[in-house]
Automatic annotation (TrEMBL):
Record has Transcription regulation as a keyword: no
This protein's record includes keyword Acetylation: no
Keywords (A to Z) from UniProt: 4Fe-4S, Heme, Iron, Iron-sulfur, Metal-binding, Oxidoreductase
Superkingdom per UniProt: Bacteria
Protein name per its UniProtKB record: Precorrin-3B synthase
Start and end residues of each Nitrite/Sulfite reductase ferredoxin-like domain: 17-72
Pfam families from the UniProt entry: NIR_SIR_ferr
Molecular function via GO: 4 iron, 4 sulfur cluster binding; metal ion binding; oxidoreductase activity
Gene3D superfamilies attached to this UniProt entry: 3.90.480.20, Sulfite Reductase Hemoprotein, domain 1
Length: 376
């Protein structure tokens, strides 16, 4: 195992699974971030039959089925394609789109995302990590979630297009939003964006029509756990759910589907709190990647350690199996990073920042946290 993280520059898809320490990872990107009740059962069946039964919800609101066997991951595709969860075209399946998860049929987010899906073949070749965000509710909520080309609600109330990494964008006429996203993707392609890999790293001057001083509206917040007008929002510890739980949620009376969010929360459409008596709030202030042994880049276990450390941290805790920091790109109040079987720790830092202390054991970490009252 290596101490340095391996940066692959591509994301696993259903058509291009990624090898991990616990088998293949097969990523499913449900259309509009919604899985119907029937599709929930299909995902659960496939996860059990072909994998470990463990499913992660990613920070791009995709589902990752874990532990698939090399020899039969292609068999897992057939039911997913038949259920409309995976496109039969690998290129189309590679297009990542995040939507504000509380959309309603016919609203701006639904209308624009549907239009983009209809025109998806008009997109140019793009690097695998490139993604779109349609965030057209009353206030933007996806600003901290990964996406390269965004449609957002502006402070003026208009809809705007904004390339990631630029603080402002330009107004888009009603009905032109999907075409504007596609045009911006073509500009990215033609101006050499593939070399940068992501929009935020692409410094080329924007076309005039996409460059203006419109700011996104502020004040939008991520969905909270608990009752929601569309159902009940439940937190997932470390973003994970298992196939049996997915089946049970789908079988609840009144449930019509599942909305995926980038915040380790799923919205169970049509559910009521009374039907979910055993579901309590989850501590979402702790981030931890899968770590060892599921990730071949990790030399340390992460999630048991994170649960042990959490009571010693007052703010946000991030435990990362290596410096890549998959579970959290932003700084955390306390970040613990695995390195060659031991741990580095830093305050107000990212997983790849310089550590305050290195080579610690789990007990050393607790002693460190207790000696830093600003962290505990
Ligand atoms: S951060 Fe965690 S999941 Fe990501 S590569 Fe490192 S060990 Fe693996």
């Amino acid at each position: 195992m290596s101490a340095a993280p391996l940066v692959r520059g591509w994301c696993p898809t259903a058509w291009r699974p990624m090898a991990a320490g616990d088998g293949l990872i097969l990523r499913v990107r449900p259309r509009l971030g919604r899985v119907s009740r029937e599709q929930m059962h299909v995902v659960a069946d496939v996860a059990r039959a072909h994998g470990s039964g463990l499913i992660d919800v990613t920070n791009r609101a995709a589902l990752q089925l874990r532990g698939l066997r090399e020899r039969d991951w292609t068999s897992a595709l057939d039911p997913l394609i038949a259920a409309g969860l995976v496109d039969h075209d690998p290129v189309r399946e590679g297009r990542a789109m995040l939507v504000a998860p509380d959309w309603r049929a016919g609203d701006d987010t639904h209308r624009i995302a549907s239009a983009l899906l209809e025109q998806i073949d008009a997109l140019p070749p793009l690097p695998g990590k490139i993604g779109f965000a349609v965030d057209a509710g009353a206030l933007p909520v996806l600003g901290a979630s990964p996406a390269d080309f965004r449609i957002e609600r502006a402070a003026t109330g208009a809809l705007m297009i904004r390339p990631d990494g630029r603080p402002t964008g330009a107004a888009v006429a009603d009905g032109d939003e999907a075409a504007a996203l596609i045009a911006l993707a073509h500009w990215f392609h033609q101006s050499g964006g593939a070399r940068a890999g992501r929009m935020a790293r692409h410094a080329a001057p924007l076309p005039d029509w996409a460059s203006d001083t419109l700011s996104p509206a502020s004040g939008g917040v991520a969905m909270a756990q608990g009752d929601h007008p569309l159902g009940v929002a439940i937190g997932l510890p470390f973003g994970r759910i298992d196939a049996d739980t997915l089946d049970k949620l789908a079988a609840l009376p009144g449930v019509t589907g599942l909305r995926l969010t980038p915040w380790r929360i799923v919205l169970v459409e049509g559910a009521t709190s009374a039907k979910l008596p055993h579901v309590g709030p989850v501590d979402l202030s702790v981030d931890a990647c899968v770590g060892a042994p599921a990730c071949p880049q990790a030399t340390v276990e992460t999630r048991t350690l994170a649960t042990r450390l959490a009571p010693h941290v007052a703010g946000r805790l991030h435990v990362s199996g290596c410096a890549k920091g998959c579970a959290r790109a932003a700084p955390a109040d306390v970040v613990v990073t695995g390195r060659v079987g031991r741990f580095d720790v830093a305050l107000n830092a990212r997983a790849d920042d310089a550590p305050a202390r290195s080579g610690l054991s789990a007990d050393d970490l607790i002693a460190f946290l207790e000696s830093h009252p600003d962290a505990a």
